[in-house]
Amino acid sequence: MPLMVILNHLFCFLPAMVGAAIIRPMQEIPTIAAISTPLGTGAIGIVRMTGPAAVGICDAVFRSVKGLRLADADSHTIHYGAVFEPDSGSLVDEVLVSVMRGPGTYTREDIVEVNCHGGTVAQQKILSLFLKQGAALASPGEFTRRAFLNGRIDLAQAESVAQIISAKTEAGLKVAMAQLEGSISREVKALRQSLLRVMAGVEAEIDFADEDPGEPDFAVNKEQLEEIEASIGELIDSAFVGRVISQGVRTAIVGKPNVGKSSLLNSLLMRERAIVTETPGTTRDTIEEIINVCGIPLRLIDTAGLRPAGDEVEQIGIERAHRALEEADLILCLFDGSLREDDHDRTLLTSVPADRAIYIINKSDMLRGRPAAFNQGLLPARPVLISALTRQGLTELKEKIADFVLGGSLPPLEGPIVTHERHKLALERAAASVSRAAQGFRVGLGPELIAEELRSATGSLGEITGEEMLEDLLDVIFQEFCIGK
Questions:
Q1: Quick one: average pLDDT of 301-330?
Q2: Which domain holds residue 108?
């Protein structure tokens, strides 16, 4: 069988081999444990353990009311009983213990989950007993990391788990769930396989150059690469919507003191989040909250009024306001419609990028049918007239925000949507390499150089799903997870 055919078959089995190659012998795998529910008062808490000794460790501290040892229990069964201190025999808590045996589990290892009463003390005590019996404390994301390393999910699917947990809107949850089910992975793997087939033909020409295999069909290869490049481009284009859905639109509310920034924040949130007084300079620091506007998450940031600072504390708040303005995706630029413009307003207008701003005239409730005193001719675009106090005009403002961000509303969330900056950067590198390879076919570049570009492209795509990976990359990804997941 020709060498390239053998290599091509080998590439097809790489995804399954990645996890298997990393798995250590059973005796070297530590059993890990962690509290999987948020600390604090609650009805139920879950202490979770996975690894070869998970069932045995739990058996040492658990007594079933039926006298059944967990070692003899069937997989995926729940057992009622209590956790006891092994040395003193004192009761710790009344619990339900779930026994799940690998490989049919989240980590493909044995898993034990103890459902105890919520509250810090009970959970911490049970975790402490597991650690005393030989379990190691899990690091952030270590359960999901094991699921990846053991081949249950790929790296893109693993990252979606953290996104499901942090989803702020229904749209964000929907996209994250689609990624967990493989929407991104299937597309990326299909593109990678297409590149590998092209690369196999190019490398066959290199390996069998002396055997005159005939003229390679450069036109076909070029066309294939252009189709692959277009598909990668579609994924890259989805990243803007993906970022909006997953991270939200960073939205700064700016203006001089007493124009109603905090009142606008409270009105949009429909609750009293920020302190509102008639005293200028009340807001001394940035306040950040998330709201849902037409399915679009907005990370609203109320800032200190922009003016010369009265004291050191206010100066710090104003500096943070300027920083929020610079970093914002969207700026809600607020003016007082009951007063004429002044130098502070004019200075603000020169410092706000018009392409990121929505201009708002507040305090329409004080106009009583009269035109706003503020000169609207100063503004680069038509302002929205509102009253943060009576909520008049807020519907129009929300519609304008949605139109500004995504043309009115979220597009249909169908097909793969890129939500991670890491994925976007890898796709951009892959697209650049594919483009150079296609250009190489057009100008008659040597097959060795074309093959190198194709290898670079497949490597970039492989980084997304974990078929090409570095240990340092895994550390960065999983340290962002919570402990116990």
A1: 61
A2: 14-153
